[in-house]
Structures are given as structure tokens and as C-alpha cells.
Amino acid sequence: MISPYIPNFISENLKFRVTVPIIPDPEKLNFHFKKSYELKWLSNFGPCYQELKENLCNFLGTPFIELFSSGTQALTCGLRTLELKCEVITSPFTFPATINAIKWAGLQPVFADIELETLTISPDSVASMIDNHSSAILGVDVYGNRCEHSRLTKMTKDANLRLVYDSAHSFGPGLFSRASSNMGTFNMISFHATKLFHTCEGGALVFDDECLVDKLSRVQNFGFTKEDHFESSGTNAKLSELHAAMGLAVLERLDEEFSHRELLSETYREILGADNSVSVHPLQDFMPAYTYFSLLFSCENGNTRRNRVHESLKKNGFGSRKYFNPLCSEVDCFANSKRANLDVVKWVVDRVLCLPLHRFIQPEDAATIARIVLEN
Questions:
Q1: Helices 241-272 and 363-375, interaxial angle, to 10°?
Q2: Phi, psi of 156 (to 5 degrees)
Q3: What fold does the segment set 254-375 form as a domain?
Q4: Among 215, 282, 257, which residue's Cα sits nearest to residue 80?
């Protein structure tokens, strides 16, 4: 039976999709999966898993990485590993997985407002919500914009809190090196098929504290420390060999896809630069992840105009998405969570729109899409 839930942003018309995953040649996928297949080793940290870990460490510049079956599992396991209590201050401007991970880790989300410029969590709003129930700050990188790490770091040190990041939208060479300025205790990256780099389903934690290696390995593998011996409760959150093989094949195609999305982004920016009532994300101050290209309609009638552009693109055969909508703070299951004044994020969520960014959109399509935006 076909699932009754088919997201309305999935379409057979690829130009109607905001994202389309890299699909490697089957021969490449088979090449990487062959060793695991021949060894009859389909899960439990096999050769594809180990090779992907090594390749990603080199690409991202991170000292340590652990791979998981999803970004949600990665974030949940990471939070469980830190043995936090009570409340985690985070942003409502995120995908529900962020808040779900907090809840599944046995913690309570507290919502802070966001910065208008970057759309990331506001340090001032966070500061207003810190009390004796707070245990951590969970910042969210948005469309590739990174959080204000220096202020959040000082805040967590002063209040004796942990600082972690949902960096699902962030991916790039050297982005998580020790020299980078945006590393928390850990950063979660999503490898979902909507992302630039993917493993179909998957995710990772990157970190620079070697003490987390064994802890994360235990919590993602039923609590086992060695064969037939476990010391704590855990879950099954391992990335399979087939998913890891997909990641290895996708990684080989990344430069080509990155270059194409860069060209699309430049086309969008060049044409949309004529309209100072529209701001473009990610900001050019940040390393582009080319996962999403998003607009913020900052004019007085921004909500009306955003909706008009969305409908006009649809009529012309192009997709767009009001992402993130609704706010996590506005849904019933999180309605009782503590929150700061959320005026900025409520204003923003009515005005954002993600444009298509993938290889089935050509530069001439991007030019057409940008002109549709200007005309509405």
C-alpha cells in the first residue's frame, strides 16, 4: 500500500522540486559496495563505513566523525552521550527533527528568538532564557549561515552549559577543522537525500574531543563495549554498508554538483541584486553549502509577496518551498515549551522562500525564476 503521506514538494517534474539528490552511476555504487557484499558484511562498522569515515574526516577537516542512520539519531545520541538534565535552549526556526531529538533524549526544549540578519539563534534572546534549569544551548545553522559562535561560547562557559550545533545545512571542505570558528562539543550534519552530500538516509556528528569516540560508539550500538558485553543502555543507530557505499559514490560527484549549484546561485544573486527588498541566504560572509538558496522578503507586504511569488513559480512549472513553516514553537506537541519573545522569528517565517537548487535547473531556468521573483 502506498503511504498516504507524499510530501507536496516531491514531483515527477524535477524542475518543480527544490532539491534533487545526486544519483551516482549504478556501476560506481556497485564498485564501492562490492567488498562488503562479497564479505557478506552489511552492517556493524564494515569496510564501506570505515572508508567513508576516513574520507569525510579528510574532506571536512574534522579530527573525529561518527556516522549514524539519520541526522535525528545522530543528534539524539549526541545529547544522550552528554548526560544532560532538564532544558536545552534552541531555535524554533528549524526542521522538527531538531526538537524531536531534544525530546527523545529526555530533555525539554526552550525556544529563543533568532537574529534577523543570519536567521540563526539570537545570543541576546538565549541569555534571557538561561536559568538553573538550563543544561545546554543547541544552535541551528540555517541555509548555510552559521551561529554567532564566539558569543555563544562565552555564554556557555560563564553559565557552565554545553554548546552543540545542528549543522544539518552546513557541508564543505575544511568546514569543521580545529581551526574553524564554529565547533561546539559536537556538530550534527545531515546526510538526508535533500542535502548536497547524502547517503540516502544518514547523518554524522563531528567533534574534536577524543573522549566522545567510545561513548558515541556505545550509545549507537546497543551499549556494547565489546562482543557479548554491554555496560549501558543504547540504541541501534548505525549507518549500514549500503548507505555508506552510496555516500562514497556521491562524494565522487560532489565537485561537479557543487560547481553547478554555484553557477545557479551566482545567476540568482546577479539578477535579484536589483531588488533591495529581498535578502538572499546563505549570506556571502559564510562558506556556501549549496544545500538551499533562500529569499527573505523584507518589504512591508513581505508575506503577501512571498505567497504571490510561490504561486507564480508554480504556474510556470517551478517549485519553491516555505521552509521552515510552521515554526516548531507553534505546533501542538511543543506548545507548552518555555519561550522567549519570538517576534523576529514569527516575522521571518512568513517571508522566507527556498528556490530550486540542483542540476536539473539550468542557468537559464534560474534566470527565469529570478525574473519571476522581481515581477511579483
A1: 50
A2: -70, -35
A3: Aspartate Aminotransferase, domain 1 (3.90.1150)
A4: 215
Q: Cβ–Cβ contacts within 10 Å for residue 284, how many?
A: 10
The DSSP secondary-structure symbol of 236 reads: B
Taking CA 209 as the corner, what is the angle to CA 58 and CA 202, rounded to the nearest 5 degrees? 55
- pLDDT tens-digit profile, the chain (376 residues): 455 655 666 677 899 999 999 999 999 999 999 999 999 999 999 999 999 999 999 999 999 999 999 999 999 999 999 999 999 999 999 999 999 999 999 999 999 999 999 999 999 999 999 999 999 999 999 999 999 999 999 999 999 999 999 999 999 998 888 666 678 999 999 999 999 999 999 999 999 999 999 999 999 988 887 777 777 788 999 999 999 999 999 999 999 999 999 999 999 999 999 999 999 999 998 988 899 999 999 999 999 999 999 999 999 999 999 999 999 999 999 989 999 999 999 999 999 999 999 999 999 999 999 999 999 9
Strand ranges in the chain using DSSP code E only, listed in sequence order? 64-68, 87-90, 108-111, 134-140, 162-166, 187-190, 203-207, 224-226, 229-230, 278-281, 293-297, 338-339, 352-355
CATH entry, 26-247, from 1.10.10.10, 3.40.50.300, 3.10.450.350, 3.40.640.10: 3.40.640.10
The total of other beta-carbon atoms located within 10 Å of residue 247's CB is 27
pTM over 0.85: yes
* Cα separation, 135 vs 194, whole angstroms: 31
The three three-digit cell numbers of residue 132, written as one number = 538553573
Asked if 312 and 376 touch (Cβ cutoff 8 Å), the reply is: yes
Decide: 112 and 129 in contact? Cβ < 8 Å: yes
